[in-house]
Amino acid sequence: MEDLDLDTLELARAGDLDAYRDFVRAYERPIHHTVFRLVGARFAADVEDIAQDIFLKLFRALPQFDPTRGTKLSSWVFTFVKNYCFDVLKRRRLPMVSFDGGIDGGTIPLPMRARGPREEIAAREIQEAIGRAVDLLPREQKLAFVLREYEGLPYAQIAEVSGCSEGTIKSRIHRAKEALRFRLRRLIFDTEGELP
């Protein structure tokens, strides 16, 4: 994802409505998808409200964002999204939940090929199992995994969002993938009849 150009960013920081619209266009999809993946399907009805709250808070805070400090705008935005979502989950005292269903792109896409009804059902079950497995990841591993695998952010930017080193992010993503691989092995065994 590319950040806004500096001219548009400066106009948005000054309160220009057209620049705000450009800001929304640039970040609407990533914010909605990340919110949905972090707070999960249980809050699917609240995703739009949460995203709107985030945008309002971002607009209010935008004049304080200083691009000369070396922070990318997208890192600042994702840090904001992360903090807000974690606060929502704390207030509701619920664990983070899976990101399957609801919003386009909310599940791990499986390879597309002609499938019969049995394959469609199996594919849906696998997607649901992946969502449940991601649900069980610790919060920081889930954040790193979602930002890398779904939003495509580079390790350095995820480290900036998470407030830790790039090595820590790589480790969290590795542990997340290992946990997912372990949890999904049984599903594959049950579906295929043998381990890969």
Please tell me about this protein's structure:
- This protein has helices at 6-13, 17-39, 47-61, 73-92, 117-135, 139-149, 155-162, 166-192.
- The protein is mainly α.
- The protein has one domain (6-192): Arc Repressor Mutant, subunit A, CATH 1.10.10.10.
- The chain is globular, with a radius of gyration of 18 Å.
Descriptive labels:
196 residues, mainly alpha, Arc Repressor Mutant, subunit A, 67% helix, globular
What is the overall pLDDT average? 80
Anisotropy-based shape: globular
The value of Rg in angstroms is 18 Å
Total beta-strand segments: 0
Kindly name the structural category: mainly alpha
CATH architecture: Orthogonal Bundle
Largest sheet: none
N-C termini distance: 35 Å
Strand content: under 5%
Low-confidence stretches: 94-113
Fourth-level CATH superfamily: Winged helix-like DNA-binding domain superfamily/Winged helix DNA-binding domain
Bin the helical content: 55-70%
CATH topology name: Arc Repressor Mutant, subunit A
CATH class, please?
A: Mainly Alpha
What is the helix tally?
A: 8
Helix and strand pattern? HHHHHHHH
Q: How many domains is the backbone divided into? A: 1
